[in-house]
Amino acid sequence: MKVLIALIIFCSIGYFMMRPSKPTVIVLLGAPGAGKGTQSGYLIEKLRLPQVATGDLFRANLKNETALGQKAKSFMDKGQLVPDEVVLDMLFERIAQADCKKGFILDGFPRTVSQAEALDLHLKSVKPKVISLEISDDLLVERLMGRLVCSGCGAPYHVKGSPPKQEGICDRCGGKLVHRADDNEQVIKERLSVFHQQTAPVKDFYKSKGFLQSVDATQEPQVISNSIEKTLN
């Protein structure tokens, strides 16, 4: 009898050890300038997971003239928004690649509830860890007007919050740092208005599922990173 019990315990332990673990999916939500790009950088380094951003997917598909890129371009050439179907196809194609097998970090996606629902269906039993970076609009306007980006690798900086070691030069690749054309007060306020109308309801979607965790994004980047790490743990 004891031998039988020991055998059952051994087989049970072996089953759970051999059972493939589910991938870690992290969704970073937040208004423009909330620090999603900066925090993605920290998470990539700590968790060794790839970052997946829809902007990068568009650029890659358009540059490589893929079928999806050409499909997206057909809408863009007409001045139309690229439909969710195309955006989701790009995303699902990307996260099916080998480097996303253990998980991935979604930066700025999903932007709408319909995208969140489609992602939820695609992930099936995988429950994403959703982090919402919270900060007031007034602070966001101030932050965005001081934002810099590398013209070479796209690394984010800020004239006050996270300046480069050498003024105007990227620490990573040595590229030139520039202000984004849309980082002016009027455009920023318009973007924030769109965010609150369209993207903010995504938080309610994830909150209803018990996936949402909020983090104070008014703090120093490293403090925010530590808060996110505690939340993930």
Characterise the protein shown here:
It is a single chain. By secondary structure, this protein is α/β, with parallel strands linked by helices. The protein is 50% helix and 14% strand. The protein is built from 10 helices and 8 strands. The protein has helices at 2-18, 36-47, 54-63, 67-76, 84-95, 113-123, 137-145, 185-199, 201-209, 221-232, and strands at residues 24-29, 51-52, 103-107, 129-134, 147-150, 156-158, 177-178, 212-216. The chain has a 5-stranded parallel sheet with strand order 2-3-1-4-8, sandwiched between helices. The protein has a 3-stranded antiparallel sheet with strand order 6-5-7. A hairpin with a 5-residue loop joins strand 5 and strand 6. Helix 2 packs across helix 10, helix 3 crosses helix 4 (67-76) and helix 3 (54-63) crosses helix 5. The radius of gyration is 20 Å and the shape is globular. The two termini are 40 Å apart. The model is unreliable at 15-20 (pLDDT under 50).
Any descriptors?
single chain, 233 residues, alpha/beta, 5-stranded parallel β-sheet, 3-stranded antiparallel β-sheet, 8 strands, 50% helix, 14% strand
